[in-house]
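Lab notes, practical 5.
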Amino acid sequence: MGDGGTRPCRVRFRATSMTNLQPTAGMCEGGQVADVIVAVASLDPVMGGVDR
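Output from the prediction step:
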């Protein structure tokens, strides 16, 4: 929704870390608790971006 001009009223950028962390539960299914650390580390999240 804009005002008819060439610039948008508001733009929202999502950090990719939150999107990358969402499949963690599926990656860890059927594994052990110690595998959670490896699964999260393989995604290389930036927790500051997840917190936004």
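Observations recorded by the TA: The helical segments are 16-21, 24-28, 34-43, 47-51. The mean pLDDT is 79.
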